[in-house]
Amino acid sequence: MKLAIVRQRYNPYGGAERFVARALPALERRGADVTLIARSAAGWGAGKVLRVNPFYLGNLWRDASFACAARKAWREGGFDLVQSHERIPGCDVYRAGDGVHQRWLELRRAAAGALERLGIALNLYHRYVCRAERRMFEDPRLKAVVCNSRMVRDEIARGFRVAPGKLHVIHNGVDLDHFNPSIRASLRTQARREFDIEKEATVFAFVGSGFARKGLGAAIDALAEPQARSFRLLVAGRDRQRRRFERQAAQRGVAGRVDFLGGRDDVRPVYAAADCLILPTRYDPFPNTVLEALAMGLPAIVSTRCGAAEVIRPGVNGWIGEPDDAPALARLMYSAADAARGAAIGAQARASAEAFGIDAMAGKLAELYATL
């Protein structure tokens, strides 16, 4: 089977790319011949690449020009199936790893002031994305939508005219050998030394790019609450607005307890140094980092607007809170710090991840492709 994967800019730190990178070997073992269609493919590896990079100015022209070029490339390539990770009408399979843009804007507007709401309403790029999203979901050529959470499936079903039979929930997969508690135990002492963490300190890991959407601001504010004033926060990921969050940490008086590590090829030392993952997202379909942390034996704090909340059992393998509620988040961090002193929650975290192995996820994808 000739399969095309469409991703405008392949970034090895991104969630969609981790999904592809981990599914790819299992799919190839099942006989799939995979080609990436992208503007840039840093970190893609030895697989085939069709580079399409038309000229553009601005993000609207960027997305529209890539959509046209990608469609032309896959039509000429003679592929059996085209799976897009971008909102491009005409693809066979869309993986809704970025969720529903229309829903994200609804949530933003609900929390925004009058000026920001006006800016959203006048933003031509948002209009373009919402229009492309609707055209793609309601295009009769679309055969299937891979939803990485029930939350995303339900949002698509509510917002668009798409047959329910086209919506398939296939949760993200995690490499259970690459991420496991024995590696966490072996790396912990060295990782804590690398990050200059005291032996008895309680450490939370924030892993992901797009700091504002993933709730880093609330996590920083929570550190200033009385219950969390002894905790450390490791931030792994890239963001153009990093300095804004560094200033926030300084203004809140917690700069000495927040470490910005940048993007990392291997995030396992970050998990190894931490006692709990914290990701109080404002909107996130299903971050891979939650499964990675659970597989390492690390409990996770997520928000109600995170698809990964579907795998969290409060007090058993993690906690669920509301986004942007720093005092409540600090209380959850305090509970996590207490639970992390025992071994039970780590064992439960690992057990909950074992249902989401990468081979199982790739097998479900392969079965879906076969039916198409």
- How many separate structural domains? 2
Q: What's the CATH architecture of the largest domain?
A: 3-Layer(aba) Sandwich
CATH C-level class of the largest domain is Alpha Beta
Write down the overall mean pLDDT. 92
First-residue to last-residue Cα separation: 11 Å
Strand order of the largest sheet: 3-2-1-4-5-6-7
CATH topology of the largest domain: Rossmann fold
Helix content: 40-55%
Task: Please render the helix and strand layout as text.
Blueprint (H helix, E strand, L loop, with lengths): L1 E5 L8 H15 L3 E6 L9 E4 L6 H20 L3 E4 L8 E3 L5 H11 L2 H9 L1 H14 L6 E4 L2 H10 L7 E3 L11 H14 L8 E5 L8 H8 L8 E5 L5 H10 L6 E5 L5 H6 L2 E4 L8 H8 L4 E4 L14 E4 L4 H14 L4 H10 L4 H14 L1
Parallel strand pairs: 1-2, 1-4, 2-3, 4-5, 5-6, 6-7, 8-9, 8-11, 9-10, 11-12, 12-13
Helix pairs in contact: 1-14, 8-12, 11-13
